Amino acid sequence: MKKILPLFILAILFSCQNTAQVNSKQQAVINAKPIKVPLKDGKARAYFASGCFWCVEAIYESVKGVEESISGYSGGHTENPTYAASNTGRTGHAEAVEIIYDPKIVSFETLVDVYFGSQNVTQVNGQGNDRGSQYRSIIFYQDDAQKQIILKKKEALTKKLGVKIAAEVYPFRKFWVAEDYHQNYERLHPNNSYIRNVSIPRLNRFKAKFPELLKDNH
């Protein structure tokens, strides 16, 4: 026991030190200065995390003015995250989507409404049975104007519902595109059990709630 106890204590101390370093790196991400993504061919980009990116991708692609929704990872402190790595919860990243949209047709403010209106806003670290920090809700801002839109809508929702809203608010820094097989997953795999039982019902709830925002083909 005299030999084992010091090793055990050293292991605990090392683990605590490692956790502190990770927390420090993650805090640096939260406190960082946001990066503004310039318009390209008249299209803007916005970034959201709200549970499984398969679900969120399909929701945004049903919205008028959205040209494309891309699945990926954002909000973490590691470089080049992968699906396997992010699923450990140790990279700090969440499954996120990049929304490419026409600001002349749909505003960032409306995209934020879609965000809050298409999830369980009170669930911490997940949506439904998808649980873990990689599934947490994060809404990213690229400048102070976007930040104020997010904070005002979050505050209004808190007052309306009388509950704490789980979504975190992060400065946008970097979006990492996910592996090819994750892209357009709901559209390409309509018979997948997860898609049938989770993604499609979530999409249909959104459609019923915001019919005025849907593309004609939806």
How would you concisely characterize the structure shown here?
This protein is an alpha+beta fold. The protein is 41% helix and 18% strand.
Give the helices and strands, then pairings.
Blueprint: H1 4-31, E1 44-50, H2 53-61, E2 66-74, H3 83-86, E3 94-101, H4 108-117, E4 126-127, E5 130-131, E6 137-141, H5 144-161, E7 168-171, E8 176-177, H6 185-188, H7 193-209
Parallel strand pairs: 6-7
Antiparallel strand pairs: 1-3, 1-6, 2-3, 2-8, 4-5
Helix pairs in contact: 2-7, 4-5
Could you explain how this protein is built, in words?
The protein has helices at residues 4-31, 53-61, 83-86, 108-117, 144-161, 185-188, 193-209; strands at 44-50, 66-74, 94-101, 126-127, 130-131, 137-141, 168-171, 176-177. It is of the alpha+beta class and 218 residues long. It has a single domain (36-213), classed as 2-Layer Sandwich (Peptide Methionine Sulfoxide Reductase, Chain A), CATH 3.30.1060.10. Helix 2 (53-61) packs across helix 7 and helix 4 (108-117) packs parallel to helix 5 (144-161). The protein is globular, with a radius of gyration of 19 Å. The N and C termini lie far apart (67 Å).
Average of per-residue pLDDT values:
90
The CATH topology comes to Peptide Methionine Sulfoxide Reductase, Chain A
Estimated structural class: alpha+beta
Largest sheet data? 6 strands, mixed
Whole-number radius of gyration? 19 Å
Number of domains: 1
- CATH architectural type: 2-Layer Sandwich
Helix content: 40-55%
The N- and C-terminal alpha carbons lie at a distance of: 67 Å
Number of beta-strand segments: 8
Total helical elements: 7
Question: Would you identify the CATH H-level superfamily?
Answer: Peptide methionine sulphoxide reductase MsrA
The CATH first-level class comes to Alpha Beta
> Main sheet: which strands, in order across?
7-6-1-3-2-8
In N-to-C order, the SSE pattern is HEHEHEHEEEHEEHH
β-strand amount: 15-25%
Return residue spans where pLDDT drops below 50 for at least 5 consecutive residues: 1-5, 13-20
